[in-house]
Design goal:
This protein is 40% helix and 4% strand. It is mainly alpha-helical and 163 residues long. The structure holds flavin mononucleotide. Flavin mononucleotide (FMN) binds next to helix 3. This is FMN hydroxy acid dehydrogenase domain-containing protein.
Length: 163
């Protein structure tokens, strides 16, 4: 396995998260327009249930069994606290992390999830394209419903390739 591409500068399309947050607030406060996908992780499941067909929802809803890992993950995240720091420059945030000798623009990665065609006709290629657009690394499942080649194209020139 070897890395064939190393990104030195932040992704050109990496989102300015502070500006995006302000955009969400402004749309909600001034125009009563809420984001399509809720920003409240506690409401995500309910929203998914409403919008997905039962086959798609049931595929993902239970985690891998009786939700033990999901619950452990939530508990782990609850241990982290946000510390507001005042009067700091926040326009340009650098969230880059180095993993296994490669630099990634985002500390979050899209975990491998198989058979994404169950959720949407755009399947893995759609998610890989959106991930690339946001500068978030996309991990392809071996149980992909789209081919590796198609996903590589959808993930674009800034995707990291591991072979
Ligand atoms: C519906 C579903 C499908 C998944 N498919 C795969 C898969 O094909 N390959 C894989 O390695 N992990 C698969 N996973 C496991 C996810 O990648 C796993 O939830 C993730 O690694 C856990 O990350 P977390 O600890 O950040 O929650 C799947 C998980 C779910 C819920």
């Amino acid at each position: 396995m070897s890395a064939t591409q190393a990104v030195q500068d932040p992704h050109p399309k990496a989102r300015n998260y502070g500006a995006y947050q302000s955009e969400i607030y402004a749309h909600g406060m001034f125009n009563n327009i809420l984001p399509t996908v809720t920003t409240d992780p506690n409401k995500l499941e309910e929203q998914a249930k409403k919008n997905l067909g039962s086959r798609s929802y049931n595929y993902v809803a239970g985690g891998a069994g009786e939700r033990a890992t999901m619950n452990a993950n939530r508990l782990a995240f609850r241990q982290w606290k946000m510390v507001p720091r005042m009067l700091r420059q926040t326009t340009h945030r650098d969230l880059r992390v180095e993993l296994f000798g490669q630099t990634y623009d985002s500390p979050l990665l899209v975990a491998p999830v198989g058979v994404q065609q169950i959720f949407h006709e755009d399947k893995e290629t759609g998610v890989a394209e959106v991930a690339a657009d946001l500068g978030v690394p996309y991990i392809l499942s071996t149980a992909s419903s789209a081919s590796i080649e198609d996903v590589a194209v959808a993930n674009g020139e800034h995707g990291h390739r591991w072979y």
